[in-house]
Amino acid sequence: MSPAAIQALIALLNIAIPGGIALVKDILDLFHKYPGLTPDQFAAIVKEVTSKADATYDATIAEILADQAAHKP
Amino acid sequence: MRQHIACLLIFLCFVGCAYKNPAGTPPTPPNVQIASFSKALADALHTANQSAMILRDNGKISQKEVLDVQEYIVLVANTGKQMDAVILSSDPWGTQREKIIKMWASSGLSIVKDRISTTAGVVLDVIVNVINQILAAVGGPTI
Predict the structure, then answer these.
(1) Which residue ranges in chain B fall short of pLDDT 50?
(2) Would the ipTM clear 0.90, i.e. be above it?
(3) In A, residues 11-70, which contact B (CB 8 Å cutoff)?
């Protein structure tokens, strides 16, 4: 399976199953279905998952800043 | 809020089951496990913040308590981002593992958490649980 195919599969899973939580579980399931993934392919998946995690971290921090601005004493 | 916490607990059960390694299947690489935990942590932080705001809006906790919770959440989020940068680096897993243990140990989380009231602290329980799963995965001391 090529990195591009993995990316496409991840994108499909993300659309088909609402929420990143389900995505994480499906990525782990993917490893069991395709045990022959190469290190480069693993790296592509790590990059994909961490980029989603970082986006969620950033969104939460932005939400906090907005909330604090709206609740200034 | 209970719905959010229930969803997170169910999710943690899923993640926990996913890490079991049935006979005959290769183990999941450690950095992939940590990446998955990081996504779980990011989701838990987002839910915790939402929960704290709902508690405040319903008069259950004060704005000061929300600020304490949010300080903790931002601290964990920034540490989580650093951890993601480490597992994306070209360092070997042993080096990455040591860096992850050190960054959580020096994050000052316990100092901030000590300031948080018991009522407000409830929304952080799932976060602590996920951090401890990360620390267990890298062989570090839990918080």
Answers:
(1) 13, 18, 21
(2) no
(3) 20-21, 23-25, 27-29, 31-32, 35, 42, 45-47, 49-50, 52-54, 56-61, 63-64, 67-68
Confirm if B45 and B93 have CB atoms less than 8 A apart: no
pLDDT of residue A7: 60
Contacts 24+ apart (CB under 8 A), A2-5: A2/A41, A3/A40, A3/A41, A3/A44
State the CB neighbour count (10 A cutoff) for residue B137.
16
Q: Please provide the distance, in angstroms rounded to a whole number, between the alpha carbons at the two ends of chain A.
A: 55
Q: Tell me the two tokens of residue B70.
A: 């949010």
Torsion angle in degrees (nearest 10) through CA of B56, B76, A67, B51 = -30
